[in-house]
Design goal:
The structure is a homodimer. By secondary structure, chain A is α/β, with parallel strands linked by helices. The first copy, chain A, has 3 domains: 57 residues, 434 Repressor (Amino-terminal Domain) (Orthogonal Bundle); 128 residues, Rossmann fold; 141 residues, Response regulator (Rossmann fold). Chain A is 45% helix and 16% strand. In chain A, the strands form 2 sheets. Chain A has a 6-stranded parallel sheet, sandwiched between helices. In chain A, strands 7-6-8-9-10-12 form a 6-stranded mixed sheet, with helices on both faces. In chain A, helix 6 links the parallel strand 1 and strand 2. The first copy, chain A, is elongated. The N terminus of chain A is likely disordered. The structure holds a DNA duplex. Chains A, B: It comes from Kribbella pratensis.
Chain lengths: 358, 358
DNA sequence: GGACGCTCTTGAAACCTTTCATCCCAGGAG
DNA sequence: CTCCTGGGATGAAAGGTTTCAAGAGCGTCC
């Protein structure tokens, strides 16, 4: 008798796992509307092939059941995602959010959505996001990379996830890239300062692993060389990141130098640094531009509204994003897509921070 | 004979659709490693239960095949996503990116990733993102809503997607919210201006569908009432968005008024407006703060670095984001979670833009 | 009146992973 | 020598959608 009892028990214990709260699927909708699974799917994906009457029934059923299409299942079966991601260096930098705006514009025109991710200049986070996005099988990835030699980045395209590099020009032939000529930008900035008669010029930027920082510095050096000046005229102040706070720190260091060794002008790798530098220097009693002329980079909206309107190197931000997204869309839809390397030209915008100096 | 031929044809033509390029799945890995599907899955999800030797074999196979786990399939079966989303009003506003930073901090601590979405103050985009995220079955949604009465928003929690409203306090009991007392903030700003002796004060903000804009205005009105002033003293300049460009537009309008009717002070619904207003007024010849005192809102990093350092109402931005994310995590992990309504207190930061006026 | 064409609908198969009840096997206890 | 135990490995089933070959219903044409 004990044995019999034991066998009688496992009656209906075959429940495997508590599912999410009452999720109605296509099956439930089909049943409620009195049609087949396939028809519900057609209403969802090809509404034009189903008769108006049937469609109405199905739509009513969906509404009353609160049906929400399960994207995981859709994507698993259909194999394609309707999402595109932009991994940016720093969401706090208006330059990148402007680029993102351009990306969204182009994506929306193509009916895709954009997920923004921010690596915060941290290699591990960048890597983690790349893995995540690849696993999500997104349509494609736009990225302003920290580590441009990342093997992870290089492998993505061959495994089926198109990548477009934004604001960097990689020599790698495995993806498109859209960039602005940063070397030229650096040259523009320094040539401008040299023309104004400055002799000791600081280059404020870092860390030196970031491509943009390196290129702009190289441009600065080239301008000096072209002008026949010694390299020693360029005083490098390396920062830990491209932020306002780091700019303030650089300002502190710079203002602390004895007047006869202090540079009379500073070229910053981006506007955030320039704004921080400006703020700190002013508060420590240096006059801008009389004691220190400042040139920024990016020409973000706040550059013009700064304490002293900032001379800056302008980049076509939104255009950069839009172009990148368009290249990505082409790559994932056009079978004979060819990788391109688009380079825009920066432009110097002169404002008070360097006006009438010396 | 023709009949026999016809039957013989469909030999191996059953290919349905060209799949994505050579995607190696668990099955292929299992075969390559000489183990079963289940074992591969265990290596992925419970590495401790598989013997070191087997694990090594499987990991080698994964590496050599370039295996990338298919997140759609994982999520479909496992039922849970490791992603959390923050839908912000405007990625170009540093206030929101600072909030986002707080969100990421908390999410990372919990091992989750964050997708950022921006509604750009557009109701349709907000709706589209909410739909998308719900279909993606994300762990939860953090949102600074445009339309707080959106039925879409209200329905989400009951269907299984937890929602936390950020920077708004909804009366709705279906989700947590984290906010800063905007009415108080408005009061602080206006009281400050009244104390300085200003009589004609402008309120610059809009559109009037945005909760923050309304609350801050209500606070302004309340301060007037408390001071026994007529409401007519508050001149409302409505803007189309909370951006620098709109701020400039408001400046244009304001500077165009005859001097005897022009306000002597302006309170802006956020710092972007204030910066635009400041910039335009200065360029049109008004002195700040002598001719026009300005108070902003948010105390973003750029407020202090502005042409005239901006008096502003400070909010605990990162804390806001972190708290919101923590509430969300609690909601989705703690079975007896109770909805909360956290309210922080804003703080007035006085700077030159209102200093020593009148 | 039979064949054909057309529009709409159907339902089984496939997508890739995770889960869990079983099974296998070696070693220890009786 | 058998029985048990427990660490590991197994593989069928399940999860919700899309796809597509095939079927149903109905009007038209010769």
């Amino acid at each position: 008798m004990s044995v019999d009892d034991a066998e009688a028990v496992p009656e209906r214990t075959r429940r495997r796992r508590a599912p999410k709260p009452h999720a109605a699927g296509v099956k439930a909708v089909a049943a409620a509307a009195g049609v087949s699974l396939g028809t519900v799917s057609n209403v969802l994906n090809r509404p034009e092939v189903v008769s108006p009457l049937t469609r109405a029934k199905v739509e009513a059923a969906m509404a009353s059941l609160g049906f929400v299409r399960n994207e995981s299942a859709r994507q698993l079966r259909a194999g394609s995602s309707r999402i595109l991601a932009y991994v940016m260096l720093d969401a706090g930098n208006p330059f990148f959010t402007d680029v993102a705006k351009g990306v969204e514009e182009a994506a929306q025109a193509a009916g895709l959505s954009v997920f923004l991710c921010t690596s915060s200049e941290d290699v591990d986070r960048e890597a983690a996001y790349l893995d995540l996005l690849e696993q999500q099988r997104v349509q494609g990835i736009l990225i302003t990379p920290i580590d441009q030699n990342s093997s992870r980045l290089r492998k993505l395209p061959s495994r089926g996830t198109p990548v477009v590099v934004v604001d960097r020009a990689l020599d790698d032939a495995s993806h498109c890239s859209v960039a602005v000529n940063d070397v030229l930008g650096g040259e523009l900035a320094i040539s401008h300062l040299l023309e104004l008669g400055h002799e000791r010029i600081a280059y404020v930027g870092g860390p030196n692993t970031i491509g943009q920082v390196i290129d702009r510095r190289d441009g600065a050096r080239r301008a000096l060389r072209t002008a026949g000046r010694p390299m020693a005229d360029l005083i490098e102040l390396t920062t830990g990141a491209l932020t306002v706070a780091e700019g303030r720190g650089a300002g502190q260091r710079l203002a602390g130098l004895p007047a006869d060794r202090r540079p009379t002008a500073a070229f910053c790798a981006n506007d955030l640094l320039a704004l921080g530098l400006l703020q700190q220097c002013v508060s420590l009693g240096l006059r801008v531009p009389e004691d220190l002329a400042i040139v920024g980079y990016d020409d973000i909206e706040f550059a013009e509204a700064a304490a002293v309107p900032l001379t800056s190197v302008r980049q076509p931000r939104q255009l950069l994003g839009r172009t990148a997204a368009e290249l990505l869309l082409d790559e994932s839809s056009n079978p004979d897509h060819e990788h391109q390397r688009v380079t825009f030209t920066p432009e110097l915008v002169v404002r008070t921070s360097t006006r009438g100096t010396l």
